[in-house]
Amino acid sequence: MADGRAHARPRAGLRLWLSSGWLLALLLAALFAPWVAPQDPLAQDLFLGRMPPAWVAGAEPGYWLGTDSLGRDVLSRILHGARVALIVAGVAGLFTCAIGATLGLLAGFLRGWVDMAISRLIDIWMAFPPVLFSILLIAVMGPGLLSIITAIVVIDWTRFARVIRAEAMAQGAMDYVASAQVAGRARLGIMLREILPNVLPTIGVLLTLEMGIAVIVEAILSFVNLSISTDDPTWGGMISEGRASIHQAWWVLVFPLIVLFLTVLSFSQLGEGIKDRFDPVLR
Q1: What distances in angstroms separate CA 127 from CA 73, 120, 123, one per listed residue?
Q2: 7, HSE (Cβ side, Cα atoms, 13 Å)
Q3: Within-domain flag for 34
Q4: Is 283 a member of any domain?
Q5: Phi, psi torsion values for 239, nearest 5 degrees
Q6: In this predicted model, what pLDDT tens digit does every residue of 43-62 receive, in sequence order?
Q7: Does the pLDDT value for residue 226 go beyond 80?
Q8: For residue 70, what is the domain's CATH number?
């Protein structure tokens, strides 16, 4: 058993470093996109339409990943699209985490009528079909980043609440909580100083998973033209356009799809790596 844990730790560390490295590189690329992007992501040149990547015969110099049907640089659009994806992931993930984790922590530790009220609210909320609910919200509010973030927060807070509630209930049955209660400590102090630190690894995993889900949701809504303006570069919009020209210009679809896949995978693996590294039970 000890040997198994010893072999698992290097793998967990490698997973943590690889995922955090990719996300850090993506974040820097998004922040400095106006300066590092080789071309204007909105500039069109029909004479350069569907030019292949730089290493393919017949490529145009300066267009490293080729161009789309309107002659726009694929690499520049991917870099600028990363800004939209990471904004949605960060803001929606943090708000979803704050609302869901707070309600779950209160329900799991306080129990009684608080738990009953929050649990019934979760059950009612989860009865709505999430996809239809999100489309309805965006249809009412109108397309845009605020609408996407609001839809994600309104729908996904229940995931945090249910998991953190169960985790808080398990931690509340531990001996260290009973000792704190015997010592006369206030319930709020026990929840914040005893329960919360022990559920933080789980919150971290859920937060990174939620960020990956937010990236996927934004890409899906962009794919069906329910995200920001169709002129602005988004990964989902690029994938939608590339799908229509896959046989003539495969790079328009493949490169944003690869970046989307690596980003979602990195968020998932980052959460697992954080849990393996900082979870006191696993350590």
Answers
A1: 43, 11, 6
A2: 3
A3: yes
A4: no
A5: -65, -40
A6: 888 888 889 998 888 788 88
A7: no
A8: 1.10.3720.10
